[in-house]
Amino acid sequence: MPELPDVDVYIEHIAARTLGHTLERVRLASPFVLRTAEPPLAAAAGRRVVSASRLGKRIVLGLGDEAGPAALYLVIHLMVAGRFKWKPAGAPVPGKLGLAAFDFDSGTLLLTEASTKKRASVHLVRADGLAALDPGGVEVLGSDVGAFAARLRSENHTLKRALTDPRLFSGIGNAYSDEILHHARMSPVKLTSRLTDEEIARLHASIHVVLEEWTDRLRKEAGEFPEKVTAFRPEMAVHGKYGEPCPRCARPVQRIRYADNESNYCPTCQTDGKLLADRSLSRLMRGDWPKTLEELEAKKTQGRAASAPAGSFAARAASFIPERAAPADADAKTSAPATPAPAGPNAKDYARRGGAIATATNAPKKKSAVTATDASAPAPGRATSPAAPGRATSPAPGKKGSATAPGKTGSAVAPGKTGSATRGHSRRR
Ligand SMILES: [Zn+2]
Questions:
Q1: Which CATH fold would you assign to the domain 140-222?
Q2: What spacing in Å lies between the alpha carbon of 387 and ligand 1's midpoint?
Q3: Is 412 in contact with 356 (CB distance < 8 Å)?
């Protein structure tokens, strides 16, 4: 999902091309993308763009009369897979992905969505309707540490949950919260009520550093118009980097799964070396969940040596451990499916069929349950390992390492990753 840095850079480009220009008409390729009926869309036509701003993760174009302030607001939410393209005036809406075209006298802004789940939205509202679309989150970059602390302590959540809650903070999502927490060296599951003043100041500073650095980087990369908007970028420290070395300590990045999402962190830098375990997953492992990277390594060796009977600890442990092949008979329930997970409506069923792990990791539906962890996805090399026939056929489509990294081909290899299957924020695009 495009977050603050992506959205801000989009807005800069859209503003440069549309401010002061007239919106001549809006062409809807998908009627469902428009979520409002009143005022009618036709009321937007012929108005001038007088402002371009961000509301949470939404993009807002203020439309005014010839002289006055904005009378209407066009509010666009890209959700996960919505993207913009800037084209010459009157450009056709691309058949499969196109949702809408906003025709200005200066060119056409295309709204596309590369996902079977059409979640991007357009609202046309008056000022009062605009307020209703504001989730209420504080703009961290515009607030001092006191205001930030007050908001952070207003509810007791895990840090991951608090940072990504649009009611608390504006514009921060899964990707940048991972990066911020890594920068601040803080555990994603630390409770906001337990933070010291020093920690809050550090977190506040990290938010500034990470968001400003990334906005800068994306601004430079954008060129003519931001075309490569993705939540997974090679320069990221931990987000989407499961199994890859942490840029700070070189130990492997781990992950936590919860609901339909996943968070990445470095145990060494963020959790005093502890692996964050999910309760249901721990139950499945009968208390044998490795608590540190060292234990994980030890169990890895143990699992490799064992010709473990199905369902035994070693078999289960092996399937949880990256960077090695699991015993063949351990794969029945926990291994990656041999065929890519379908994106779209079937994805949930597919995930359910993924077996025990899928069930376990999908169990917590509440977003607050930022507790699930696993180290279960295949690591680089696993797909080709002869010892893991189930995985040997796992697709490693095209890209090096893509069979392993969460979010890249995540759905293809990780049972239970309904999220990436349906939300489609993948590098495949
Ligand atoms: Zn680290």
A1: Helicase, Ruva Protein; domain 3 (1.10.8)
A2: 30
A3: no
pTM for the model stands at: 0.69
Q: What is the whole-number distance in angstroms between the Cα of residue 5 and the centre of ligand 1?
A: 24
Q: Which of 182, 193, 194, 27 is nearest to 94 (CA)?
A: 27
CA 250–ligand 1 middle distance (angstroms): 6
CA of 319 to the centre of ligand 1 (A): 24
Positive/negative CA dihedral, 179, 185, 188, 194: negative
Asked if the 4-132 domain carries CATH number 3.40.228.10, the reply is no
pLDDT tens for 95-117 read: 989 999 999 999 999 999 999 88
Q: Are 157 and 195 in contact (CB under 8 A)?
A: no
Distance in angstroms between the alpha carbons of the first and the last residue of the chain = 13
Q: Beta strand 107-113 with 82-87: parallel, antiparallel or unpaired?
A: antiparallel
Count the alpha carbons within 13 Å of 164 in the hemisphere toward its beta carbon: 24
Q: How much distance in Å is there from the Cα of 394 to the middle of ligand 1? A: 29
Residue written as tokens 């480009």?
13
**Domain extents in the chain:** 4-132, 140-222, 254-423
- pLDDT tens-digit profile of 263-300? 899 999 999 999 887 554 555 555 565 667 777 667 66
Rg (CA), the chain: 23
Per-residue pLDDT, 350: 37
CA distance 258 to 260: 6
Does residue 160 contact residue 366 with C-beta atoms inside 8 Å? no
